[in-house]
Amino acid sequence: MKPAIFDHLHPTTTQDALKALAMGGKAMGGGQSLGPMLNLRLARPDSVVGLSAIPGMTDIREERGKIILGAGVTHARIEDNDCAIDLPPMLRHVARGIAYRAVRNRGTVGGSIAHADPAADWISAMTALDAELVLQDGAGKQRRIAVAGFMLGAYRTQLAPGEIITSVEIRSQMRDAHWGYYKICRKVGEFADAIGALVIHPSSRFIRLVAGATGAQPLILTQLGAEIAASAQRPREQAIRDALGTNLPGLDPVKLHLMTTALDRCIQKVIPA
Amino acid sequence: MTAHRQITRNDADAIKPLPIRLTVNGEISDHLVPPRTQLAELLRDRLHLTATHLACEQGVCGACTVMVDGRPVRSCLTFAADCDGIEVETLEGWQGDELMDRLRAAFTRNHALQCGFCTPGMLATARDLVERLDTPDEARIRNELSGNLCRCTGYVGIVGAIREVIEERDALRIPPKSPPALPRIAAQGFAPFTARADEVASAAPAALGETTSENGWTIVRRKVTLDHPPKAVWTHFRDLPSVARCLPGADLSETDGKTFAGHVGVRFGPISARFEGAGEFTADDATQSGQVTGRGKDRGGQSNVEGQLAFTVHEGETPATSQVDVSFRFRIEGVLGQFNRPELVNGLVDYILGEFVANCNAVLSGGEIRESKGVSAWAVLRAVIMGFFRRKG
């Protein structure tokens, strides 16, 4: 279908973009999630504010021990490591698994996180990687917020009205982290039914085990993560199932099984049998 | 830069087309495009390049895939207004393109086209794969082709054709464009360590309640706790207008206490819907239970919703609190129904229920309903998230 009528703005500065958003515009990164909603007329904004023309949004750089990805960096560029620095292997792996190449060529990391679809990859992967977001508001004020806790529920985030994500930052140390990522989809590229993500960086005593595609925000399994760190052993499948059951009571048995399997398989990638 | 222009639906006519210049199959053309024009529409309706097919328009089927600046993109998810200065190649083009010539020959040899609907998108994707992949690995090709649907199930020939052309490319010593492969490191384990305290973890308890699906109806059951005694809660709940006032986005236009007409506006991320409808309300003082049954149509009649909300008020853990068993049964048909991902419906119901409970608590405390606007909505939301509303089992 053709989208309902809207105006399409292409601001070239963050300030102009934020002004347009303050007037009720809907921000659009690569448009690969918003596009289908517009076409289905599920979303009928009066104006769409494209953020792609803002300088700096597509930069990838490294400074002060951090890898900084502009919010407008596409999944395909991360997949291809199309930049001057080495990206953590986990980022490249996750990027390759997002939707389809034609979608990855336009979809952006910041757009995906702001959209906060529970089944999306970056929100879970970046939570596991302890990434931070840099947000900017209309007054030019910047704030930083951890990706963990950024999402409040399906399509709901801590992004205030009139605020945009300008970049995603990951500690450079994460290049050396042990990582496992496993997602279960009914068909390659479809919305995930379950996501398991594990990142371990022993020298900074960091471990984070994340269950994604919960229907709401990613779930951080702190206790089970700490146990994995302390034992360096794979937990039994029942222990994973119990941890999920405690944190997500009332979970559908099939979903519980899928999530247990995804977590088990992501842990297997780090800890040998 | 038109960012400062205030747009309302009434002056939609005033939305100006945007000028763009693009090169399609080597020919430069200028266009004035209304903002909602998709690239696919521009190619098909203005340039009459009808090989680019439109099917799902959700980025799933791949029939509209064209090359933009040498990379495959979905022309149904690309707005023409974003295309100023780009180069597009469609099936009608690729003149003198060696890889495409080889692919066309290989598709013919392998009987890789049946009805032909998927073929333009398949060829665009195939050209990208032939250029990019370092080996003719069948599993990888099939994975990459997952974004292009063929309803004739003709994949065998298509995969075969792509493999052949990758081999031909290798024989011609044309290097693949794929980046260095990811290092494959076997799981190596690590020495045990004491994890540092993860202070962010406690901030994200994702809780789900029970949601089931029966004969096309979605049924959501929840138990919510209100900070007021059952009697007060029941008095509030048995009065339809007072309950409706607490439901975010709901507005009763007329009611006699038993039947009602009105609308419910729903905002869920970028999705917005406004259901107009009517229904009935019953309440039973003896069992302190009630039921609202209603039917509504979305703006423009593109989606229908039918639903039933049943609730029973019990005493909570202490006599000063109440536990309300809530069950929603609903069925959505039409455009919104296509989007029926049950987990998201769960999320939406939780959000609305959270606001509803916060509002009920506020009203029962003698306060006013918080305005669901700007900062205050934010505060309500945060209060809900921080456990203002406790959910049990």
TrEMBL record, chain A:
Q: Name one Pfam family in it.
A: FAD_binding_5
Spell out the protein name for this chain.
Answer: FAD binding domain-containing protein
Q: Keywords, A to Z?
A: FAD, Flavoprotein, Oxidoreductase
InterPro entries associated with the record: Diverse_Substr_Oxidored, FAD-bd_PCMH, FAD-bd_PCMH-like_sf, FAD-bd_PCMH_sub1, FAD-bd_PCMH_sub2, Mopterin_DH_FAD-bd
Q: PANTHER family recorded for this chain?
A: XANTHINE DEHYDROGENASE SUBUNIT C-RELATED (PTHR42659:SF2)
Limits of the FAD-binding PCMH-type domain: 1-175
TrEMBL record, chain B:
Q: Where is each 2Fe-2S ferredoxin-type domain found?
A: 18-94
Task: Fetch the CDD domains from UniProt.
Answer: fer2
Enumerate the InterPro entries for this protein: 2Fe-2S-bd, 2Fe-2S-bd_dom_sf, 2Fe-2S_ferredoxin-like_sf, 2Fe-2S_ferredoxin-type, 2Fe2S_fd_BS, Beta-grasp_dom_sf, CO_DH_gsu, Diverse_Oxidoreductases
Return the PROSITE patterns for the record: 2FE2S_FER_1, 2FE2S_FER_2
Sorted alphabetically, the keyword list is: 2Fe-2S, Iron, Iron-sulfur, Metal-binding, Oxidoreductase
Per its UniProt record, what PANTHER family does this chain match?
OXIDOREDUCTASE WITH IRON-SULFUR SUBUNIT (PTHR44379), XANTHINE DEHYDROGENASE IRON-SULFUR-BINDING SUBUNIT XDHC-RELATED (PTHR44379:SF8)
The protein's name is 2Fe-2S iron-sulfur cluster binding domain-containing protein
Q: Which organism is it from?
A: Paracoccus fistulariae
